[in-house]
Design a protein that fits this description.
single chain; 14 strands; four-stranded antiparallel β-sheet; 173 residues; mainly beta
Length: 173
């Protein structure tokens, strides 16, 4: 099997960068230490198009989750934002349009990871406060707080069917 690596493309200033593909593979989202989220078209014939740049964050973007028509991003300041794909507010990338749809969470600690589940209706958020928060993407309400770790939670992931949610912590669990 032959693997081809495409030419690299500048996305962010030097430093931490998060990345997530859309489920369909039509676009890729990046977030960086420059506080920006960028959405690039992925098909080879569209890669040279300008990215849509989202400027809602005021600190390093640490986490991205993409599912269906949603992009969720979390930052070092503990802010988690939701964006809708395919609407008409901020546009670029030749037809790709993205609109901010709300603040999902304001945590006093960094939002390390996010995972969208339950048919794109909720998001799990990992923060440094030893718990995982489940927030509704329909009305941005807190549905559950899951405790049990004894260290910062740095990763969360829904199973493909959203029946299970796994989390990982600095405490080794």
């Amino acid at each position: 099997m032959s693997k081809k690596v495409t030419d690299p493309r500048f996305a962010h200033a030097e430093g931490y960068t998060a990345i997530a593909f859309g489920k369909s593979g039509q676009f890729v989202c990046t977030g960086g230490s420059d506080c920006l989220v960028r959405v690039f078209r992925a098909p080879k014939s569209e890669r040279d198009q300008e990215a849509v740049t989202l400027e809602q964050h005021s600190d390093n973007v640490l986490s991205l989750a993409v599912s269906g028509g949603k992009v969720i991003s979390g930052d070092e300041e503990g802010m988690v934002f939701s964006f809708d794909l395919g609407t008409s507010s901020v546009s670029g990338a030749d037809g790709l349009s993205i609109e901010p749809s709300g603040t999902v969470l304001r945590s006093p600690l960094p939002a390390r990871d996010t995972s969208i589940g339950n048919g794109d209706k909720q998001v799990a958020i990992a923060t440094d406060d030893e718990s995982v928060r489940i927030v509704s993407l329909l009305d941005m309400s807190l549905l559950h707080t899951l405790d049990g770790h004894r260290g910062a939670v740095n990763s969360v992931c829904y199973s493909p069917d959203s029946i299970y949610l796994a989390s990982a912590s600095c405490d080794g669990t």
